[in-house]
Amino acid sequence: MRRNFFYNLYLFDKRLFFLVTIFSSLTIFCNIKGDEITPFFVWAMYSEKEDTANKYEIFKILVNDSVLVDYSSDYTDNNRFFLSRPLRYYNKIKQNGFVDPGSSFLETKLGATYSIIQPVAKKIFNGIENQEHFTGWYKKYLEQTMGMPIHAFKVNALSGHFTGDQQLQIDSSYLVVEWRQQ
């Protein structure tokens, strides 16, 4: 009994012991009831089976009209992340009419209280006014990553699936972003 955490906590600080005990009890009670009350103990994220994807989207990045960027193997994990993830988010924003999907999600979650953050929403979320900022930032990141000056880049999204013999078959392609130095 003397090695028990709660016993030692009780000896150390009685108020802290009661606070931790009440918090733990409420958390267990609410989880049993089915309500997730804290962001630290969200168990539902682990409870659903993940479906296998049958459609994949990859980006074809063409630099200076001739250099194809192979971000799948030529770079570190961090570089791969920053070469592809911002493009994916930019593409989502573009497909959403240059409205940040995070804004729509937060507006749905907060409901009427969304009006509290509305005055700073343009500073928090990306929109059409940030489109040119993205292309400038992405150009600089490509230059740093590839170690060469860039006067043009073009990104296409390729959508495809794997065939029975594990070959990727491209079903469609569309332009995500194109930038050319003036």
Describe the structure.
42% of the residues lie in helices and 19% in strands. It is built from six helices and four strands, in the order ααββααααββ. The radius of gyration is 24 Å and the shape is elongated. The mean pLDDT is 84.
Structural class: alpha+beta
Q: What is the average of the pLDDT values?
A: 84
What portion of residues is helical? Answer: 40-55%
What is the number of E strands? 4
Please tell me how large the radius of gyration is. 24 Å
Topology record:
Layout: H1 5-12, H2 14-33, E1 56-63, E2 67-69, H3 77-95, H4 101-110, H5 121-124, H6 131-146, E3 152-162, E4 168-180
Antiparallel strand pairs: 1-2, 1-3, 3-4
Helix pairs in contact: 1-2, 3-6
Quick structural overview:
With 182 residues, the protein is α+β, with helices and mostly antiparallel strands.
Describe the structure using short key phrases.
182 residues, elongated, 6 helices, 4-stranded antiparallel beta sheet, single chain, alpha+beta
